[in-house]
Amino acid sequence: QVQLVESGGGVVQPGRSLRLSCAASGFTFSNYAMHWVRQAPGKGLEWVTIISFDGNNKYYADSVKGRFTISRDNSKNTLYLQMNSLRAEDTAVYYCAREGGPYGSGSFHAYWGQGTLVTVSS
Amino acid sequence: DIQMTQSPSSLSASVGDRVTITCRASQGISNYLAWYQQKPGKVPKLLIYAASTLQSGVPSRFSGSGSGTDFTLTISSLQSEDVGTYYCQKYNSVPLTFGGGTKVEIK
What we know:
With 122 residues, chain A is mainly beta. Helix content of chain A is 0%, strand content 54%.
């Protein structure tokens, strides 16, 4: 079965960096685009970024553009999110999510990881 | 960017009631709309995609309709396990915006 396991969250000071990872299993990782979605405490869902199945195309929400970088290693079935210049408003649970269909055929989030909490605080 | 507006933001209904949640896009998105359910303290779960296609394993009391700018999620007979927050999301193009959510409670 599809499994997504995030790691790398924690407490970090404003202005510092953090890298999240998402280990995927149970499907052919290299066939699917992947996303990061976040949820601030007590708030709604916010889409953050997407990377195409081959890693060649990446798009970001305006709120993180220029600070966050999504990447993937298809040989390791792992998705990454490099977060730089972190701000208090980046505090959230970060979920990785798999698309509904292969090769960009369904950009909704069919499968979600359990999430990893990032807290930006001095 | 296209904005997604959900209404109501919260509702309280009795077990067995028919519940309707609406989602409006600021521009047409064809049928590129998904609905998610998030139970308290849990991970979001996909309910419906392509506006009206039920995800595998989702109870048939859930249904979706609409196209263009106006969409509806209906729970035909509310059950206690349906308590949670429901989100719509457009996915025709980036950014893949979510609606603000509708919190469903039992009266």
